[in-house]
Design brief:
This protein has helices spanning about 5-10, 15, 20-25, 30-50, 85-90, 95-100, 130-140, 165-175, 220-225, 225-230, 270-285, 315-320, 325-340, and strands at about 55, 60-65, 70-75, 110-115, 140-145, 155-160, 175-180, 190-195, 200-205, 210, 250, 260-265, 290-295, 300-310. The chain has about 350 residues and is α+β, with helices and mostly antiparallel strands. The protein is globular. It binds adenosine-5'-diphosphate and magnesium ion. The site of magnesium ion has 3 residues, from loops.
Length: about 350
């Protein structure tokens, strides 16, 4: 069986693998240049302190580092510390699901769908909308997302069957493969940044949800929840409304810091223990050089949602105490490792 896999399968992998590049070149978000600039400033500072020669190339997508006769590259947010195959797996939600499931590591269920015009062998039996509709009818609600997306872009919660087709059509305009999964009622989401299998930082992501007190507007409450994100985003008059006492307002159902979620490092020992257990299961099986692991907590269990091989830290810098120092020390370790 000839599988024209490499380029066909996940052409969009480039988007994810090179997030920074996409952010810059495709101008995804207003603050993108500052995202990139902040990252570059930190890397530059580290290089200056260590006497590493630092050069931005290819419209800032590539950072070339030279030290004691060795040349190393950062591309996007990738430090080259995971092998390429593993990087591809981590950044592909369905591939990661299959790998972790095969290794009996708890992971959020993901299925793959290809375009109905994709007649390659690998897509056979995985390219009809009916598959998603059948899945919806068993599991509703469900989540549909770009298989290699990031930052919550192109992640949709489906609550009506008639939404499935338009959303798939929209996603297939720019993606070669789509993931669909049951919707998990997530209580908390956690991220662990790992270098060489060792945790460097664990934080809890807090969904952007506020509860009224009969005095404050939605805007006041959201700004109090996450000033960094919301201070310049709530000009619409809908945010003028004062929430009734106890009334809950959900700004976004996703836990992405790039969509208003906040973060805290205040995590109980019990939860920390559970997260470390999963991290150990992962790092015993996968040789992770540098990555962030996202774990969801539901009423029933903890499971991996995704692993990102590019470690973006732009938002936590502003949100957690000593964010900049913590992030800088993580990137310093990563750079040291590049030159080992
Ligand atoms: N199956 C799901 N059930 C519930 N929430 C989900 C599910 N999949 C994604 N989400 C929410 O959407 C966010 C973004 O999804 P994720 O798979 O991490 O994609 P991205 O790579 O774009 O961040 C997650 O952080 C989570 O809060
Ligand atoms: Mg995510």
């Amino acid at each position: 069986m000839v599988n024209n896999k490499v380029n066909e399968l996940r052409t969009t992998i480039h988007f994810k693998m090179s997030n920074k590049y996409s952010i810059i070149r495709e101008g995804k978000r207003d603050d993108t240049m500052s995202t990139n600039a902040k990252f570059n400033v930190i890397i530059k500072e580290i290089c200056e302190e260590k006497g590493i020669n630092y050069n931005l190339l290819s419209r800032d997508w590539i950072t070339m580092l030279e030290y004691k006769g060795k040349t190393r590259f950062i591309s996007g947010f990738q430090f080259g510390l995971n092998d390429h195959a593993l990087g591809n797996i981590m950044d592909d939600k369905f591939a990661l699901y299959e790998v972790l499931r095969t290794k009996k590591i708890p992971v959020a269920e993901h299925h793959i769908l290809f375009k109905n015009t994709n007649n390659n062998d690998y897509a056979e039996g995985y390219n009809t909308v009916d598959l998603v509709k059948d899945f919806y009818n068993i599991h509703k609600p469900i989540v549909i997302k770009a298989n290699t997306g990031s930052c919550g872009t192109n992640v949709f919660k489906i609550e009506k069957e008639e939404d499935i087709e338009p959303i798939l059509n929209q996603l297939f305009e720019h993606n070669h493969s789509i993931s669909y999964c049951p919707y998990y009622d997530i209580k908390n989401e956690y991220r662990m940044i790992v270098i060489d299998g060792e945790i460097q930082l664990i934080y809890k992501k807090k969904k952007p949800v506020v509860t009224g007190n009969g005095k404050d507007t939605i805007r006041d409450l959201l700004i109090a929840f996450n000033k960094h994100y919301f201070s310049d985003k709530l000009n619409d008059p809908i945010y003028d409304r004062v929430l009734n006492p106890g009334e809950v307002y959900e700004y976004d159902w996703r836990f992405n810091l790039s969509r208003g979620a906040s973060a805290s490092t205040d995590i109980s020992d019990e939860i920390r223990g559970k997260l470390i257990e999963i991290k150990d299961q992962i790092t015993n099986e996968l040789k992770i050089g540098f990555a962030s692991i996202d774990i969801i907590e539901t009423n029933d269990d903890f499971r991996v949602l995704e692993i990102n091989s590019g470690v973006m830290t732009e938002n936590i810098i502003e949100i957690i105490d000593n964010g900049k120092e913590i992030v800088k020390s993580i990137y310093t370790k990563a750079i040291d490792k590049m030159f080992e």
